[in-house]
Specification:
- The chain is mainly α and about 280 residues long.
- The chain folds into two domains: about 55 residues, no CATH class; about 170 residues, MetI-like (MetI-like fold).
- It contains 15 helices and no strands.
- Helix 3 packs antiparallel against helix 10 and helix 8 crosses helix 9.
- It is a multi-pass membrane protein.
Length: about 280
């Protein structure tokens, strides 16, 4: 058997294995979407049948009606409001802090950078109780402030670290040329660094938006009013252990809830690898 044939067989085997693993991983999602078109009473009795015997849109109609005269469109608006503001705040603050770490010299820089990296290893559950008590004293409970304001001050080290590495890959000669032309640090950041930081910003946008859109625990802790629920928290209203659960409507709204994240990923995926690789500028 020739070397070329061995390579071809290896490539085929690789794609078969990866394809099989991909099907296993995506099957629960496909099952949920297909079950959203089944009658609620038949979802679990025909769980082994992926294709519905009878397609129905009743689950989407019932699910969109929402609860207590609150349409599910309200929950989508709430999620969009939280996710967009938190993502914008995260990107702006992270870019500024990353520029400071990558380009500015100041006392304690290494210590602060190490502290930021250490904060990435700190479990969120450790901060849960003190944060809740703090926000309660600020009268922020049952508002969106705990879900938005903290992300406007670079509390997520992942994005700062990613953007710092990206900025360090940009040649410092560009900064020096800008200084000769009379640019301050603010001018260098806005006119040189920020435009070149686009791949890292878009990568951060993808991750931050998805994380905020899917955030269930934060909403569960701080939001008490049904009309303020985001989608992640509203979905649990379909499940009532004390009576009957409308799983059909739950699956229908869950299928709709993943659309924003999927669309963002599809349209911005070309920037994802470049942003994570933090390769700097290309020639």
């Amino acid at each position: 058997m020739g070397m070329h044939t061995k390579r071809r067989l290896g490539t085929v085997a690789y794609h078969v294995i990866v394809g099989g693993i991909s099907l296993i991983m995506i099957y629960p999602l496909v099952w949920m979407v297909m079950s959203s078109f089944k009658e609620t009473s038949t979802i679990f009795t025909t769980a082994t049948n992926l294709i519905p015997e009878t397609f129905t849109l009743e689950n989407y109609v019932n699910g969109w009606k929402g609860f207590a005269k609150v349409s599910f469109s309200v929950f989508f608006k709430n999620s969009l409001f939280i996710s967009v503001l938190a993502t914008v705040g995260t990107l702006c603050s992270s870019a500024i802090v990353a520029f400071g770490f990558a380009r500015c010299k100041f006392p304690g820089k290494k210590f602060l950078f190490a502290a930021m990296l250490a904060s990435m290893m700190l479990p969120a559950q450790v901060l849960m109780i003190p944060q809740y008590l703090w926000y309660q004293k600020l009268h922020w409970v049952n508002t969106y402030l705990p879900l938005i304001v903290p992300y406007c001050f670079a509390v997520q080290g992942f994005f700062v670290y990613m953007m710092t590495n990206f900025i360090e890959g940009i040649p410092t000669e560009l900064d020096e040329s800008a200084k000769i032309d009379g640019c301050s640090y603010y001018g260098i950041f806005l006119r040189i660094i920020l435009p070149l930081l686009k791949p890292a910003l878009i990568t951060g946008c993808i991750f931050s938006f998805i994380w905020r859109w899917d955030d269930f625990l934060g909403s569960l802790l701080y939001i008490n009013s049904t009309e303020k629920y985001p989608v992640s928290l509203a979905l649990k209203l379909f499940s009532d252990p004390g009576s009957s659960s409308d799983y059909g409507a739950m699956f229908a709204m869950a299928a709709l809830s993943i659309l924003p994240a999927v669309l963002i990923f599809l349209f911005l995926q070309k920037y994802l690898v470049e942003g994570i690789a933090t390769s700097g500028i290309k020639g």
